[in-house]
């Protein structure tokens, strides 16, 4: 806790003086903040420096959910002293003030150094999201988090440096397994998760990952392929809201089972409630008591699991262009054209990236070097130049034979994609190699 330095009314009313880092505005003048002792510190007869701060992991997800923050603290003075090592975290979207998450105290002799480490996980940087009376459950918002050391460090995207680091949290695990479309037969609608939370029943369209869902038998979750979020219902009542939420194996609002006999999607926690169309237009699905098969309105709950097409549009989201077969020999990244077979691809079981529009042609790379040529060639499972794998975590198309090389858009205009060294996730040009199927 921070106390005002004095009982002066101005000090009590404005204890932070519009503080930014270690600067405050006092009487209209920007100066060092007037405090008796800085946050976490007290009287000391020596000084300390911090160096070599680093994070063990900078891209976190449910499958890799911890990072270790390390920093070397050195006693720069002439006397033995103790230092409080403070670790602060700023979350995406606020609060504006950074929050103290971890701390420790070290005692060092003159000239002595010590490496200090802290572990951060979603339990540290997440926040409680439950309604009052619904228990305690933390979830971390997806986005960039800023980690800072020392009381006076200003830490944001523009000030990354020795005492300010950043990591990203991707709350959605890459969906795996078999995907289906959930088709409401009576209306010929399919369930979709077009963005963030909302779910709707809409007309079926090809190559729409937001209309595809997988069933995780281990967790009983229904996961959307496009958003990576889970179908979630938290109101056990007729008309209870249904949306998607960040997947959490411990979130009981996300447990479902599909009853093949009645074709109903039943909630496992809120017993006897099923997913229901809600309105004939399908714009607001909700929970409703599971209806008997003899009821005429049971059609509002009857879903058929339909296997979607295996053909995909390969999109570079940074530039808004899609992989396109240009004739029977070349590829390029171009603007999306509705229903164009030349922009449909299938990464088959042989790890060949096949063109739907160009007859028996596959993406082929034969020069394992930066700038190496990539083109279309007759498909052959024995042609080692045509073997690819899509990294579900980094979204890079990695060459199986030319290890360490990835498909790269080549330029913002995308007219000549090529091979390039697979870039690390921290690299500024990673966007050139991130492709969504």
Automatic annotation (TrEMBL):
Reactions accelerated catalytically: Hydrolysis of terminal, non-reducing beta-D-glucosyl residues with release of beta-D-glucose
Keywords, sorted A to Z: Hydrolase
One protein family per Pfam: Ricin_B_lectin
Domain of life: Eukaryota
The EC number(s) this enzyme carries: 3.2.1.21
Domain Fibronectin type III-like: 83-153
GO molecular function: beta-glucosidase activity
UniProt KW Hydrolase keyword: yes
Enzyme class: hydrolase
UniProt keyword annotation of Coiled coil present: no
Domain Ricin B lectin: 176-306, 311-431
PROSITE patterns for the chain: RICIN_B_LECTIN
Family membership: Belongs to the glycosyl hydrolase 3 family.
Protein name per UniProt: beta-glucosidase
């Amino acid at each position: 806790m921070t106390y005002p330095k004095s009982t002066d009314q101005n000090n009590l009313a404005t204890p932070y003086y519009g503080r930014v880092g270690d600067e405050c505005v006092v009487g209209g003048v920007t100066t060092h903040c007037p405090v008796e002792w800085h946050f976490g510190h007290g009287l000391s007869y020596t000084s300390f420096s911090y160096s070599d701060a680093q994070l063990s992991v900078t891209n976190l997800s449910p499958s890799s959910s911890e990072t270790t923050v390390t920093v070397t603290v050195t006693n720069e003075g002439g006397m033995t002293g103790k230092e409080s090592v403070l670790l602060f975290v700023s979350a995406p979207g606020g609060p504006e003030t950074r929050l103290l998450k971890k701390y420790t105290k070290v005692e060092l002799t003159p000239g002595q150094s010590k490496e200090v480490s802290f572990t951060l996980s979603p339990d540290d940087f997440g926040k409680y999201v439950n309604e009052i009376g619904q228990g305690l459950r933390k979830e971390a918002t997806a986005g960039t988090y800023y980690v800072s050391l020392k009381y006076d460090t200003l830490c944001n995207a523009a000030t990354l440096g020795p005492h300010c680091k950043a990591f990203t949290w991707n709350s959605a695990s890459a969906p795996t397994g078999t995907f289906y479309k959930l088709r409401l037969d009576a209306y010929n609608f399919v369930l979709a998760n077009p963005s963030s939370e909302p779910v709707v029943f809409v007309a079926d369209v090809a190559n729409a990952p937001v209309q595809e869902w997988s069933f995780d038998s281990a967790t009983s979750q229904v996961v959307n392929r496009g958003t990576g979020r889970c179908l979630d219902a938290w109101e056990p009542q007729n008309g209870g809201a249904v949306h998607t939420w960040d997947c959490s194996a411990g979130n009981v609002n996300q447990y479902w089972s599909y009853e093949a006999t009645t074709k109903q999607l039943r909630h496992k926690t809120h017993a006897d409630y099923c997913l229901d169309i809600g309105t004939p237009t399908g714009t607001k699905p909700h929970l409703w008591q599971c209806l008997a098969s003899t009821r005429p309105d049971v059609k509002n709950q009857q879903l058929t699991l339909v296997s979607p097409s295996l053909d995909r549009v390969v999109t570079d989201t940074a530039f808004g262009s899609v992989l396109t077969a240009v004739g029977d020999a070349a590829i390029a990244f171009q603007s999306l054209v509705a229903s164009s077979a030349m922009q449909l691809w299938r990464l088959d079981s042989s790890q060949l990236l096949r063109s739907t529009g160009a007859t028996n042609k596959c993406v082929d790379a034969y020069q394992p070097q930066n700038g190496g040529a990539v083109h279309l060639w007759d498909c052959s499972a024995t042609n080692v130049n045509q073997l690819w794998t899509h990294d579900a975590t980094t979204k890079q198309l990695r060459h199986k034979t030319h290890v360490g090389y990835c498909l790269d858009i080549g330029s913002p205009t995308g007219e000549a994609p090529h091979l390039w060294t697979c870039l690390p996730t921290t690299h500024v040009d990673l966007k050139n190699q991130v492709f969504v199927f």
